[in-house]
C-alpha cells in the first residue's frame, strides 16, 4: 500500500473518529442528565417535598451522589468519580477546547489551564530559586528545577541505567527503547513518542510564531524557544558544570556537556553499534546507512543529510561569512571552524596524546590521532580496498578515483579536489602567511608547518626509531633515517622506488 493512500485513509479515519466522539459526548450528556435529574425529582415527589427546579435538582444530585458510583468513558473505558471529570476527559477524544485566551487566541480544555497560561502574559514569576536566583511562573517547574541542584535522580531506567528526577520523565524515556510512537500528526502522518513533541510539530505546520523577542525581533513557535533565545541577550549562565568551571545558560546544554566528562553515549546505532551522546546525532548518523539526503541545494543540486549542512553550503553561493576573528580579521562560514581558528591565536591545546605527547584543540582530533598509534583504519574504499583512519580522508581519496577537480585557481589554472586544498594553494599567490611563530617573527602558510618549525625552539622530537631510540622533529626525517642497529632505512616502499637510483645500497 502506497504512503499517500495510507495517509489519506488514516486522516479520514481520524476525522471520522472525532465526529463520533463528539456525538458520543452529546449523547452521554443528554442521557445521564435525564436519568440523574429524573432520580432526584422522583425522590422529592415520593417524600412529599415540593418539586425542585432543574438546576436545583442537578446541584442536589451532585452533593448527594453515592461515592461508589463511577462515570465511565464509553470510548476508552476510563472511570471517574465525578461527571464533570468525565466531561473534561471526553475533550481528549473530541479535541474540544472551550477556553480561549483573549490576548493570543490560544485555546485550552480546562479553565484552570487557561488561568495558568495567563501568567505568561502577565510576566509574573512568584517562585524564585534561593540557590541560583532563577525565577519561575509555575510551582511544578520550580520544584523540577530544585532537583537539578540536588542532583538526586531516584528513577532509573533498567535498560540503559539513565536516571531521572521524575517518574514521568522515565516513562517518556522508555519510548526510546520500545520505539513506541503513539502520537500521530493528523496533517502529515508523522508519529512521535511524546504528546508535547507532536504539539510542537503541529505548530510548525501552521507557521505561526506568536512569541517575539523584544531585543532583536526574532519570533518563535513556543515560549520555551523564546526563553532559550533570551539567554543570548542577557548573558545569564546559571548552570555550572560539576567537573569543570564551564557555565551554561540552559540545563539541557549543561547535561550534554557533562556527558563529555562521563563519556556517556546512551544512543547506539543498531546497524554498526556506534554510540552517540545525543539522540539527534544518532538520527543523523543513521542516514549514512540509508543514504538518505533529503535537503537539496536549488542552485547546484548538491544534497545533504541534515538541513544545517545545506544552510552552511548555501553560504558558498552567497559568499556570506558571518564569523570574523577580532585579532586577524579573517572571516568564516561556520562557527565551529571559527572557534578552531581562535585556538590558533591562543595556542591552547588542552587534549594531549599520552603516547607521543602531541596536543590537540579538540577531543575528537585526539581520538582520530590515536588511530595512528593503534594502526586502526576502519574506513575502507569500496573501489580499491584501501583503508583510512578518518572518514574525511576516505572521502578525499574517493574523489581521486573520479578524477573530478571542481576547485580551480583563477591565478594559474591549477585544479584541486577540495576547496581546502585550493585555499592552501592560493596563499602561494597572495603571499598570505597567517601562522606566526611565538618564539620568533617567522610566519607560515600552513599550521602544520608552524608546528614543525616550533620544535626547533622547543627541542621536541616526537618521531622515534624504536630499534636505536633516535628521535626526530619531522616524520620525513624518521623515514629517511638509516637505523644504526638494523642498518636499514625507515623509508616507505613508495619512497624507496623514487630513491632507488640515488641510494643503491638501501636495504629493505
From TrEMBL:
Highest taxon of the lineage: Eukaryota
Signal peptide range: 1-22
Species assigned in the record: Cyprinus carpio
InterPro entries on file: Znf_C2H2_sf (IPR036236), Znf_C2H2_type (IPR013087)
Function: May be involved in transcriptional regulation.
Keyword Transferase assigned: no
Short name of one Pfam family: zf-C2H2
Domain C2H2-type: 71-98, 99-126, 127-154, 155-182, 183-210, 211-238, 239-266, 267-294, 295-322, 323-350, 351-378, 379-406, 407-434, 435-462, 463-490
Location of this chain's protein in the cell: Nucleus
GO BP annotation list: negative regulation of transcription by RNA polymerase II; regulation of cell differentiation
GO molecular function, one term: RNA polymerase II cis-regulatory region sequence-specific DNA binding
Main location: nucleus
UniProt GO cellular component terms: chromosome; nucleus
Positions in coiled-coil regions: none
Transmembrane segments annotated in the record for this chain: none
PROSITE patterns associated with the record: ZINC_FINGER_C2H2_1 (PS00028), ZINC_FINGER_C2H2_2 (PS50157)
Keywords: DNA-binding, Metal-binding, Nucleus, Repeat, Signal, Transcription, Transcription regulation, Zinc, Zinc-finger
Name the UniProt record assigns to this protein: C2H2-type domain-containing protein
Amino acid at each position: 500500500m502506497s504512503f499517500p493512500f495510507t495517509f489519506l485513509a488514516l486522516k479520514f479515519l481520524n476525522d471520522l473518529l472525532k465526529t463520533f466522539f463528539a456525538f458520543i459526548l452529546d449523547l452521554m450528556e443528554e442521557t445521564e442528565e435525564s436519568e440523574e435529574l429524573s432520580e432526584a425529582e422522583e425522590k422529592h415527589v415520593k417524600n412529599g417535598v415540593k418539586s425542585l427546579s432543574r438546576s436545583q435538582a442537578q446541584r442536589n444530585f451532585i452533593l448527594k451522589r453515592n461515592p461508589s458510583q463511577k462515570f465511565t468513558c464509553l470510548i476508552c473505558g476510563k472511570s471517574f468519580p465525578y461527571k464533570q471529570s468525565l466531561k473534561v476527559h471526553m475533550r481528549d477524544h473530541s479535541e474540544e477546547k472551550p477556553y480561549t485566551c483573549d490576548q493570543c487566541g490560544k485555546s485550552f480544555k480546562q479553565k484552570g489551564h487557561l488561568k495558568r497560561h495567563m501568567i505568561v502574559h502577565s510576566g509574573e514569576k512568584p517562585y524564585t530559586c534561593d540557590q541560583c536566583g532563577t525565577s519561575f511562573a509555575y510551582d511544578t517547574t520550580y520544584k523540577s528545577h530544585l532537583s537539578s541542584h540536588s542532583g538526586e535522580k531516584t528513577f532509573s531506567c533498567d535498560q540503559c541505567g539513565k536516571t531521572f528526577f521524575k517518574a514521568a520523565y522515565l516513562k517518556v524515556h522508555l519510548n526510546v527503547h520500545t520505539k513506541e510512537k503513539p502520537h500521530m500528526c493528523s496533517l502529515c502522518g508523522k508519529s512521535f513518542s511524546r504528546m508535547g513533541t507532536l504539539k510542537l510539530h503541529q505548530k510548525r505546520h501552521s507557521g505561526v510564531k506568536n512569541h517575539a523577542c523584544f531585543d532583536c525581533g526574532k519570533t518563535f513557535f513556543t515560549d520555551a524557544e523564546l526563553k532559550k533565545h533570551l539567554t543570548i541577550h542577557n548573558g545569564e549562565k546559571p548552570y555550572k558544570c560539576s567537573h569543570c568551571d564551564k557555565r551554561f545558560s540552559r540545563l539541557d546544554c549543561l547535561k550534554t556537556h557533562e556527558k563529555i566528562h562521563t563519556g556517556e553515549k546512551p544512543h547506539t546505532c543498531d546497524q554498526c553499534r556506534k554510540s552517540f551522546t545525543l539522540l539527534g546525532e544518532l538520527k543523523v548518523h543513521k542516514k549514512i546507512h540509508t543514504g538518505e539526503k533529503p535537503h537539496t541545494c536549488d542552485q547546484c543540486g548538491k544534497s545533504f543529510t541534515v538541513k544545517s549542512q545545506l544552510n552552511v553550503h548555501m553560504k558558498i553561493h552567497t559568499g556570506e561569512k558571518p564569523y570574523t576573528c577580532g585579532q586577524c580579521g579573517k572571516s568564516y562560514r561556520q562557527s565551529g571552524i571559527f572557534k578552531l581558528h581562535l585556538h590558533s591565536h591562543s595556542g591552547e591545546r588542552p587534549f594531549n596524546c599520552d603516547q607521543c605527547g602531541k596536543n590537540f584543540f579538540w577531543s575528537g582530533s585526539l581520538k582520530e590521532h590515536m588511530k595512528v598509534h593503534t594502526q586502526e583504519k576502519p574506513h575502507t574504499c569500496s573501489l580499491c580496498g584501501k583503508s583510512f583512519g578518518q572518514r574525511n580522508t576516505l572521502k578525499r581519496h574517493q574523489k581521486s578515483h573520479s578524477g573530478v577537480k571542481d576547485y580551480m585557481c583563477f591565478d594559474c589554472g591549477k585544479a584541486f579536489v577540495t576547496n581546502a586544498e585550493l585555499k592552501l594553494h592560493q596563499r602561494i599567490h597572495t603571499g598570505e602567511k597567517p601562522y606566526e611563530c611565538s618564539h620568533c617573527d617567522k610566519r607560515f602558510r600552513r599550521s602544520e608547518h608552524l608546528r614543525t618549525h616550533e620544535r626547533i625552539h622547543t627541542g621536541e622530537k616526537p618521531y622515534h626509531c624504536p630499534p636505536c631510540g633516535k628521535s626526530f622533529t619531522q616524520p620525513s626525517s624518521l623515514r629517511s633515517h638509516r637505523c644504526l642497529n638494523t642498518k636499514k632505512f625507515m623509508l616507505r616502499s613508495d619512497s624507496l622506488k623514487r630513491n632507488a637510483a640515488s641510494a643503491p645500497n638501501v636495504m629493505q
